[in-house]
């Protein structure tokens, strides 16, 4: 965010932030950015780059004369560095923790880096750093977390989506107010096992039968949508 000539705060678009990051990356490679090089790296026309550079120059983020080199100002370099760091730690998080390919991680990071605020960025950065330290120490809790991420297909789902004849363990009850109180009072709590779920559709509508604690129970679609299960 910069201050424009009227003293008002001017937001940078995500695309313009991409230009700042591209200039910094060229500088980091030991070269000086040019319109031609930026157009090639970003896959846009020289006219598009020139228009963006004009805005960035007006915002005091870079120096550029027509047909000349593109040089970041101190403020521009600080802004570009913040964007670059955000992109890098997001990419690292997606690759090392979530198991994305680097190409996919780069694409997702490109979208997210423009949407998170500073407070979110700092918490994500601290979280990523904590994971890195735990990885170096081979801490048991991190191994458990990574095993859980590898089993994402085992996430809970509503009882109404359970395969016919299956069962599972209650993960949570999503209902609110009176229905939540009634379900909890009837013993529908996390950790309780449910078995032999069957979906029945007749002239009275759709309902579900199942066994819990040795008892046969019948649910309507509302209750079956509010009880979520871990289904093996």
Give an overview of the whole structure.
It contains nine helices and ten strands. By secondary structure, the protein is an alpha+beta fold. It folds into two domains: 115 residues, Arc Repressor Mutant, subunit A (Orthogonal Bundle), CATH 1.10.10.10; 74 residues, Ferrous iron transport protein A (FeoA) (SH3 type barrels, Roll), CATH 2.30.30. The strands form three sheets. A six-stranded antiparallel sheet has the order 5-10-6-7-8-9. Strand 1 and strand 2 form a beta hairpin. It is elongated.
What is the compact description of this entry?
With 232 residues, the protein is α+β, with helices and mostly antiparallel strands. It has helices at 14-28, 35-42, 46-58, 74-96, 102-112, 118-136, 140-149, 177-185, 221-226, and strands at 2-3, 9-10, 62-64, 70-72, 157-158, 168-173, 193-202, 205-212, 215-220, 227-230. Helix 1 (14-28) crosses helix 4 (74-96), helix 4 (74-96) packs across helix 5 and helix 4 crosses helix 6.
